[in-house]
Amino acid sequence: MGEDILENATCFIIGAGDMTVTEIDRKEGDMCIAADGGYLYCKILGIEPDLVIGDMDSLDGDVRGEIDRMRREVPEKVRVLPAEKDDTDMLAAIKEGFAAGYRKFCLYGALGGRVEHTIANIQCLGYIKNHGAKGYLMDGNLMMTVIRDETARFQESMEGYLSLFCLGERAEGVTIRGMKYLLDGAVLTNDFPIGISNEFTGEQGSVTVEKGMLLIVITW
Fold first, then answer.
1. Which stretches of 2-137 are DSSP H helices?
2. pLDDT of residue 57
């Protein structure tokens, strides 16, 4: 696939956590990866994944039978991982997306269930950012992303709440514009959640961090 197509394409990764969306707007050139039990959500959404990857520990017998048939008929579409491994199924799927040339990732089914999995998936957003790509963790009324040494801008039409969390010991030069609560060159730390529950105001908003990494959580 040409680089000009991939530049605007998205790698969708469907995990096995909670998921409330009823459709995903998949376009030509996009890739869809089912991370383990995320294969069940793909079936519900009517999406045929380009790849199924994981140790398959969250799939029941009937679905495992489907995966086994897929392995026999189209083996390139299935990667079964060992149960004991360093990468989570979600991170393994992200690495497959990078290998395929994608630089924008949308993660679904990445929240809920075991809290350690949710935290691991949030850390995956940091992995994506640190490898030069954009990552978004999505659900029906929530979006998370990570910024590092940069500015994120928000349109006037944005509604709801915006919260910031420091990923790392310090995030320096944090400036918030066009929101209900403003900051100017502040320092955020990972032991004081001062950035919680800001509000969009109908103006163009922005968040800048000069040095460090911030998790942005938007709810509506």
1. 3-6, 38-45, 61-73, 89-99, 115-130
2. 76
Q: Hey, which residues does 38 pair with through a beta bridge?
A: none
> Which span out of 5-14, 82-91, 93-102 was modeled with the highest average pLDDT?
93-102
Mean pLDDT, residues 59-73:
86
β-partners of residue 171 are: 188
Rounded Cα gap, residues 38 and 58, in angstroms: 9
CA angle 160, 163, 167 (to 5 degrees): 155
How far apart (Å, rounded) are the C-alpha atoms in residues 11 and 100? 9
φ, ψ for residue 119, nearest 5 deg: -60, -45
Sign of the torsion angle spanned by Cα atoms 55, 61, 67, 73: positive
In this prediction the pTM is 0.93
Q: Report whether pLDDT(4) > 60.
A: no
Q: Which two tokens stand for residue 162?
A: 């915006």
Q: Which residue has the tokens 């949710």?
A: 118
The answer to whether residue 3 scores a pLDDT higher than 60 is: no
Torsion, CA 154, CA 155, CA 156, CA 158, rounded to 10: -70
Tell me whether residue 142 is exposed, middle or buried, using C-beta atoms within 10 angstroms of its C-beta: 0 to 12, 13 to 18, 19 or more.
middle
Is the Cβ–Cβ distance between 198 and 176 less than 8 Å?
yes
Which residue has better confidence, 177 or 3? Answer: 177
Separation CA 49–CA 10 (nearest Å)? 13
